[in-house]
Structure prediction request, 270 residues.
Amino acid sequence: MQEHVRVDIIVTCKLGFERVVASLIQELCPECSAVPSPMGYMGLVLVEAPTQNIEVLVNHIREKVPEAEKVFKVDAECNARLQELGECVKPLASGISSDESFAVRTVRRGRHDYTSLDVNAYIGSVIKEATGARVDLENPNKVVVIQILQDKAYVSIVPGSEFYRKMAPTKFPMYKLYRRMVVAHEPYLGPPDASYVMGTRIGREIQCFEVRKLVVAPIGAVEAEPLQRFLKGVIDGQKSRLGIQKKSYGREVHRTEILVQDMYQFVRSW
Prediction:
C-alpha cells in the first residue's frame, strides 16, 4: 500500500459489489472509513473503525449488509514476510487450546516469493508448536484466516463454523469409496504434445479422487511413441497432484496405482 491505513475489518463480496458494500457500511457506521477494491483488488472492502467495540460492528455488518459474504475482524497486522508473519501469529495462538483443531486459510493478492500453501504450512507449524493443537482441514474448531495484500498481511482467528463445510461429521467421506474403484482409460494417441497434455490432466484427476487403480487400456497394438508420451503425462500429472495433497491435506493420502493392460484382457480379468 502506498499510504498505510489501519485496517480493523476485512469484508469480502461478489465482484462488482464493492462500492455498494462500502456505502452500506458507512451508513451503519458514519465515522468508519470503508475502502472498496483497495489497490484495484476486486471483491474486497477494507474498513477502518474508530469504535472500540469492533465485534459489535462486525455483527452489524453481517446482519445488515447481505451483500457482504465474509466479515473478518483483523486481530493482527504485519509485513507480508513469512518469518514476520510467524512472529505476528504466535501471540494469537493462545486463542486456540491444545484440545482444539485448527486450519490455516490464506488468500494472497500481489506478487510474493512464496505461495499460499507455503504460508499455510509454515503458519500451521508455528501454531502447532505453540499450542499442541492438531490440524484438521475438513472440520476445524478454529480457522486462522490470513489475507495478504501486497506488502501487508492481516490475520483473523474465527470459529470453524463460519466456513461452509463440505464434509460434515455425519457425512460419509467419499474418498474411502473411491479407493475401492478401478478405472480403465483408453490412452489418447494423438500428436506427442497433445498426448502428454491429455495424460497430465488424467493423472491429476485420478489422483485428485484417490481411486484405487488406473488401468491404461489400449485396444490391440498401438504406436509406442504416443503411448509413451501419454503415460509420461499421466505419471507426471499424478505426481504433481500427489505432492500438493501430501502438503495440504490433514490426513493420509492414497497414491493411485497406475497399470497398463489390454482393454479386452482388462474386461476378462476384472
Summary: The chain has a mean pLDDT of 91. The chain has two domains: 9-162, 174-269. Residues 202 and 234 are 6 Å apart (CA to CA).
